[in-house]
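pinned: reference chain
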Amino acid sequence: MNRKTTRGVALLSAATLLSGCYSYSPAKLTTVPAGESVRVTLTRRGQLELIDRGSRVDETVLGTFVGREGEQVLLRIPVGVREEGFFRSAIERELPVPAADILAIDRREFSTPRTALFVGGVAGGASLIVGIIIAASARAGGPGDPGPEEIRIPLFGVRVP
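pinned: its structure tokens
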């Protein structure tokens, strides 16, 4: 591959891998509706308290906001996956978190620019692959071609002494 193609592949890979179809935006605890996907940032004390109660959590917890009960916030967090043949279901647990131990709560929202970047990266990568195949097929045939031969694209070479 030449330098221009390599740069194109690197740029498309970065655009595809760094994008996502959603983002998190800050919210107030009182405005988050039940059933909303959230990311909660805990204080160190809150994290240690949850660990003492038998829940292994990180500084940020991803889950679904269930509601409030007094001074506690209920989150539904995934703890595992159950598989039966092709059927797959998430195993979730409700986790009570003291509201005083929450530093920030962020709502998960659909991001149109990130989705467009992802789709553009995938489409660009697909068109780049199709272009490489077409260029290779144009080089394969020509006058004096001994016969039908499969298109071969050299991906790497190994020299044998």
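why pinned: The first helix runs from residue 3 to 18. The beta strands are 22-27, 37-42, 60-69, 72-84, 87-98, 102-110.
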